[in-house]
Design a protein that fits this description.
Elements lengths: L4 H4 L2 E6 L4 H14 L5 H6 E2 L2 E2 L1 H9 L4 E5 L5 H7 L5 E6 L2 E6 L1 H6 L4 H15 L11
Parallel strand pairs: 1-4
Antiparallel strand pairs: 1-5, 2-3, 5-6
Length: about 140
């Protein structure tokens, strides 16, 4: 089996800037209607009918498990890292968690799943585990 940088990540975790559960979902939908709630990651991954089919395909093809969760559904360790920094995409290695894509990168995608996919592939391939850049070419 060929080992690539992407296979060193245990998983990627997308953290929405919303609370999960029925009340969280209702609060977000109400906020969207009133124009007071916004989550760039939600706009990328979902449309009015639910999870976008192209995002489902991206999740299968990225080469690293990509899980999605809400800010109130993360572990204490992950919650400490992402508090006040959602939406974001976090990478997990044996050494812990690291934010790979933050709010600015997700906003720049303007709801485009393919933009997110490209950013994830670029970030995972370039950063490697622990955010270490690949060795310079000799």
């Amino acid at each position: 089996m060929m080992i690539t940088r992407a296979t060193r990540w245990r998983r990627l975790i997308g953290v929405y800037d919303t609370n999960g559960g029925l009340l969280g979902e209702l609060a977000y939908l109400t906020g969207r209607i009133l124009g007071v709630a916004h989550c760039a990651l939600c706009e990328i991954t979902h449309d009015a009918s639910g999870e976008k089919p192209v995002f489902k395909a991206t999740r299968r093809s990225i080469g690293v498990p990509l899980e999605m969760t809400h800010r109130n559904q993360v572990s204490l360790e992950l919650g400490t890292l992402v508090e006040g920094r959602t939406p974001c995409v976090v990478g997990e290695t044996d050494a812990g968690y690291e934010i790979l894509l933050g709010r600015a990168e997700l906003e720049a995608c303007r709801g485009d799943v393919l933009c997110l996919e490209a950013a994830l592939r670029r970030t995972v391939d370039e950063a490697g585990p622990g955010g270490e850049p690949p060795p310079a070419a000799a």
